[in-house]
């Protein structure tokens, strides 16, 4: 990534689960910490898989963070001397997160966020498309498909050893217990309506 701007922009790290999004976020935060940048790291309180006040990657890298339940809480912590705001798993915040990222970037803050681009159904995750559209820089990571070992762009939800149904609720916190990475071909969503009904009729 080659950045020419002086300050204030949005960078999004996205992709399926097990792609290393959190690891990449922590790497970027760590680099800035070495340079003594003024950083605040947030994460949604809903995902307390590993720790309440730390962002933790699968390989156990960690960095201190503030848990928030609403995007607007970010503004309670940001000060005039804040240079960088990082948010892990931003897809779990509410839609205000998009405006807040835009506002911070306009004010000269470097905004680094990571989040899932798709839900387990393979559909865009909540407001993520809007965030991806306004970001200056997007890093789309892939995982490795557990079935065929090609690059995985989807997250497979598994319940009782079987692919989860399309009508299951979107939010289900978990890791290897209920999810795995899959490619387009190996991703299974029983009950998913065809998106190309229109073409089938031709
Ligand atoms: P992520 O941080 O995206 O997953 P990860 O830690 O495996 O990936 P990475 O290594 O790239 O950081 O966390 C995803 C969370 O979202 C996890 O708790 C499961 C949850 N989730 C849902 O609630 N609904 C869904 O449809 C999907 C796909 C995930
Ligand atoms: Mg993660």
* Broad CATH class of the domain at 9-142: Alpha Beta
CATH homology superfamily name of the domain at 9-142 = P-loop containing nucleotide triphosphate hydrolases
Shape descriptor: globular
Bound molecules: thymidine-5'-triphosphate, magnesium ion
Task: Report low-confidence residues grouped into runs of 5 or more.
Answer: none
Report the portion of residues in β strands.
Answer: 25-35%
Largest sheet geometry: 6 strands, parallel
Quote the average pLDDT: 93
Please tally the helical runs, counting DSSP H or I stretches of 4 or more residues.
5
Topology order in helix (H) and strand (E) letters: EHEEEEHEHEHEEEEEEH
- Indicate the radius of gyration in whole angstroms: 18 Å
Helix content: 10-25%
Give the strand order, joined by hyphens, for the main sheet. 5-2-6-7-1-8
Distance between the termini: 43 Å
How is this structure best described in words?
It is globular, with a radius of gyration of 18 Å. The mean pLDDT is 93. It has a domain at 9-142: Rossmann fold, CATH 3.40.50. It is of the alpha/beta class and 202 residues long. The N and C termini lie far apart (43 Å). A six-stranded parallel β-sheet has the order 5-2-6-7-1-8, with helices on both faces. Strands 12-11-13 form a three-stranded antiparallel β-sheet, with no helix packed on it. It has a two-stranded antiparallel ribbon with strand order 3-4. Helices cover 20% and strands 26% of the residues. The chain contains five helices and 13 strands. The structure holds thymidine-5'-triphosphate and magnesium ion (MG). Thymidine-5'-triphosphate binds next to helix 1. Thymidine-5'-triphosphate is lined by residues 17-22, 47, 49, 58, 89, 116, 119-120, 155, 170-175, 179.
